[in-house]
Amino acid sequence: MSLQDQYKLGEPGVFRERCLASAIGVAIAVQGESQAAMTTVQWQKRAVLADGVLAHPNTHERRIALAVAADGVTDNASTDAAIDARVTALWDDLAGVTGEDLV
Questions:
Q1: What is the Cα–Cα distance from 29 to 82, expressed in whole angstroms?
Q2: Where are the domains of the chain?
Q3: How does residue 11 score in pLDDT terms, banded at 50, 70 and 90?
Q4: Is 76 helix (H, G, I), strand (E, B) or coil?
Q5: Terminus of the chain with fewer CB atoms < 10 Å: N or C?
Q6: How many angstroms separate the CA atoms of 22 and 89, rounded?
Q7: Dist. CA 49–CA 24, nearest whole Å
Q8: How far is CA 53 from the centre of its chain?
């Protein structure tokens, strides 16, 4: 998929809506996470993003869709499970978790 195609997936439409629906599900799961397996900073950043997605979903919609599409593979033809997996995998990145936050 070209960069232009990836960018277009971030525009309003079905793909963006599917990514947001997935992000809301991930955010709910993140809100219930235990901090035990994470550093305090990682846990806090993940929770802040989750709170933001749940409180103001449309604020995050475009950047989540663009991040999901950036792999050049995930698109409108992808299954919901594939989009869910991609959003879950990107959560730390979207939350701004850095390598330093993991130690």
A1: 17
A2: 3-102
A3: very high
A4: coil
A5: C
A6: 12
A7: 11
A8: 9
